[in-house]
Amino acid sequence: MKGFVVFAAIAGIALFGGLVAYSGLGDVGSAVAAAGWATLFVVLIRAVVISGCGLSWHLLFPPEHRLPVWVAIGLRFVREGVNTLLPVAMVGGDVVGARLATFWRVNLSVAGATTIADVAIQAATSAAFAILGIGVLMWLHGDGPLVRYAAMGAAVAVLLIAAFFVAQARIGSRLLNALLARLGVKGTATELVERLWSSLAAIYAAPGRVARSTLVHMLVWIAGTFEVQVALHFMGYPVSFAEALVIESLGQAVRGAAFAVPGGLGVQEGGLVALCALFGIPPGPALALSILKRVAELALGLPALIAWQLLEGRRVFRRSEPDDAVTEPRQ
């Protein structure tokens, strides 16, 4: 697995380098310089987007186990930082976030269940956002090869997401327990699986909370469109909101499909070059747009990674206290 990740990273770097060479380093640099204050605006928009994701996660917690909203938002920044800046295949940050939630005396099963549900809802709304982008692209340009390829990709994504939701049903716990039994694992692990799935069932048994979380996630995806619109406007290539939505939605879909490539390096850039070309935007500004997005990831992700290490360090110094991260209080 590590070998594959290394290969994917090398391939992504090579693709990124090839795109820069094809676009012209000077053109890319000029576009980044022309962006100017757009960099700050993109960072601020990204901060709002991640905060919205934190709110969406917060809404999934049952009232008696609810993580404070400011903590949920802060930990969501950590989740995002780990997923975007470390080679963890876009899921390691969610594991870290669930663990850190237990530092605030949230049950481990509840923290894990809300994180699983949050990831599922995020994936579902991401697919819906991509489908919206395909519909807007058809409205702007009519049918074509790109629309058909995007539609096929969206169909595959919907099937995978549906399978993920099915796995969260009781059949998923039975399959996991059967696997653990075959591996000779008994006791605490199987009990934790049962508690985790019970917590998942309780989350989905509250459709109001799930609906509110889903709505916030969808609004967050749409809000991300302003990153594209603002950045391209400052670079001298203004696009309509509809055009920016197509670029953002399908660009996110392309990056999500390449989850094995650390940070989607090269893949995100290639997708944005192809999508921007639909609206007459040259490769240089398209690559500059991707660079601005990566600046936002660094500007927000690096402090989040530092905060993660500070939280873990404080935990080490408090080891003499009862460890609530592995217990199940208030059940």
Please tell me what the overall shape is.
Answer: globular
Instruction: Give the radius of gyration.
Output: 21 Å
Low-confidence stretches: 323-331
Mean pLDDT: 81
Number of E-type strands:
0
Q: How many domains?
A: 1
Distance between the termini: 38 Å
Question: Which structural class do you get from the secondary structure elements?
Answer: mainly alpha
Q: What percent of residues are in strands?
A: under 5%
- Count of individual helical segments: 14
Instruction: Give the ordered list of helices and strands.
Output: HHHHHHHHHHHHHH
**Main sheet specs:** none
**What is the helix content?**
over 70%
Protein name: Putative membrane protein
Main location: membrane
InterPro entries: L-PG_synthase/AglD (IPR022791)
Pfam family, one: LPG_synthase_TM
